[in-house]
Amino acid sequence: MVKTQFGIKDLENLSNVKAHTIRIWEKRYNLLEPDRTDTNIRKYDLYNLKKLLNIAYLYNAGYKISKIASLDSIQIQALIKQNIDGIDSEYLGNIFKSAMFEFDGELFDSTLEQILKEKSFREVFSDIFVPLLNETGVLWHSGTIDPSHEHFISEKIKHSIIVHTAKLKKRTSKDDNKLFTLYLPYKEIHEIGLLYANYELISAGLKTVYLGANTPMNSLKHVLKTKTKVIFVTYFTVLPENDNLEKYLIDFQNEVCTKGLCELWVMGSKASKNIKIKKNITLFKNLKQFTNQIESL
Fold it and tell me: How far apart are CA 127 and CA 70, in angstroms?
């Protein structure tokens, strides 16, 4: 069953407002209206969650809780609109959270459309989507949200990357000197970072081949049979496991880049681990390093 009721600890995780503060606000100002179980445990619905997200936004913007408590929901929304410049990352992140909890694809799409009038897709991805994905991952593992919520928001972001990449196809250079081949290691399925890397490469006018998730290392050699200069790009999220990181890179050199005609660019959280730098292998600790490298080509 999809989660539609939340405990006070869930609200703390989602809003970054401490549970004891939520209790004080609730008792003193009657800000939220939880249901209670037979054992008197508070349970909050989606309406209360969204209300708390809005209250937290205004509170963090400097408004006193007593002032916020005197406002109804329409007045709160009006005050928020007065205080955001239209592209406030925190507030927009909360809108995307609301879309996630209600499985509201139209809200996601319309919000993204509005943001893109003022921000580039790169800014949207780095300033809003990356923090949202990081937070969603934490919330999923803590049990605050249901896996279906995480899947929904991940697939919406994935689709938006694919759509914006397709719009860039006509700008791709016909320069065949370098071919970027993007793949994920065998049994690795977390594809969003790789999809975005593909977007950046095509945006820069570079030629790419996208192999996608779950690619055995042995399969990579086939690309080198038809191309002379290949830069493989991968994204380590879950795999390889930490104990096997260096072994994977050594195996790549020995099994794929046997003649030194290729390189491997590694992105993802595992790329920031303490790995010895190896010949023809470049590690990018963050997205900015990756985009700087592309711009330097």
Answer: 32
Instruction: Assess contact for 198 and 192: CB atoms under 8 A.
Output: no
Cis bond upstream, residue 240 (ω within 30): yes
pLDDT category at 176 given cuts 50, 70, 90 is low
Is the pLDDT at 33 greater than 90? The verdict is: no
- Edge-to-edge strand ranges of the sheet holding 179-185: 207-215, 179-185, 230-235, 262-267, 281-283
pLDDT top residue among 274 and 70: 70
Helix ranges (H only) for the chain are 8-15, 19-29, 46-60, 65-69, 73-83, 89-101, 105-115, 121-124, 130-141, 147-166, 192-203, 217-224, 245-255, 287-296
Residue 146 one-letter amino acid:
D
φ/ψ of residue 63, rounded to 5: -80, 140
The rounded distance, in Å, linking the Cα atoms of 251 and 257 is 9
208 touches 201 (CB < 8 A): yes
Q: Which amino acid is at 242?
A: N
How far from each other are the two terminal CA atoms of the chain, in whole angstroms? 50
pLDDT of residue 175: 56
64 shares its domain with 161: no
Domain boundary among 62, 83, 104: 83
The number of distinct structural domains making up the chain is 3
**Which tokens hold the place of 29?**
């100002």
**pTM for this prediction:** 0.84
Q: Give pLDDT tens digits for 199-213.
A: 999 999 999 999 999
83, 105, 132 - which closes a domain: 83
CB-CB contact of 153 with 95 (8 Å): no
